[in-house]
Design a protein that fits this description.
Number of domains: 2
Number of helices: 8
CATH architecture of the largest domain: Up-down Bundle
Number of strands: 0
CATH class of the largest domain: Mainly Alpha
Oligomer: single chain
Largest sheet: none
CATH topology of the largest domain: Four Helix Bundle (Hemerythrin (Met), subunit A)
Length: about 160
């Protein structure tokens, strides 16, 4: 019985070792197979776009101006999740929940942010008109990747 249990545990250890190695290799190979979807998250997005799309100096300046314009518009539109969080905490701090007042504030915030998205898409459309057809095609294809536009156009949230 002891000999049988020893062999069984050796087979188990061998299988576990193979599984760990397979997962390790998959982690190395998978990013190579799917391209570089997270590259914009880990490096300077403007530098990555310059390299990926072959942007010239004027196009880089235009992209940087677009990023500044979007950041300024976001700042005036109510500050993202932090603005919502503070609005919610204020409502929770009231002795009686005023549903109508909170709904009004939510709708105002939604309208302001909706206008921001509209402005952002319009500005991005204008920027894309400065790209060559090949650059624009590559940009649009890359825009289908999750997180690409967010990383390129919106700076990461500030840590508090």
């Amino acid at each position: 019985m002891g000999k049988f249990m020893g062999r069984r545990s050796l087979w188990f250890l061998l299988a576990a070792s193979v599984a760990v190695n397979v997962f390790f290799l998959a982690g190395l190979i998978y990013p190579q197979l799917i391209g570089k979807p997270a590259s914009m998250m880990s490096e300077d997005p403007v530098a990555a776009a310059t390299e990926d799309f072959g942007l010239d100096a004027g196009q880089v300046a235009g992209l940087e101006a677009l990023r500044r314009q979007i950041a300024e518009r976001r700042a005036t539109a109510g500050g993202g999740a932090g603005g919502f969080r503070s609005m919610m905490v204020e409502a929770l701090a009231q002795p009686v929940f005023d549903r109508a007042a909170f709904e009004t504030r939510l709708n105002e915030r939604r309208q302001a942010r909706g206008g921001m998205i509209l402005d952002m898409v319009e500005a991005l459309h204008g920027y894309l008109s400065t790209l060559s057809p090949a650059q624009k095609s590559a940009f649009l294809e890359r825009s289908k990747e999750p997180g690409f536009l967010r990383a390129l156009l919106w700076p990461p949230p500030e840590r508090r």
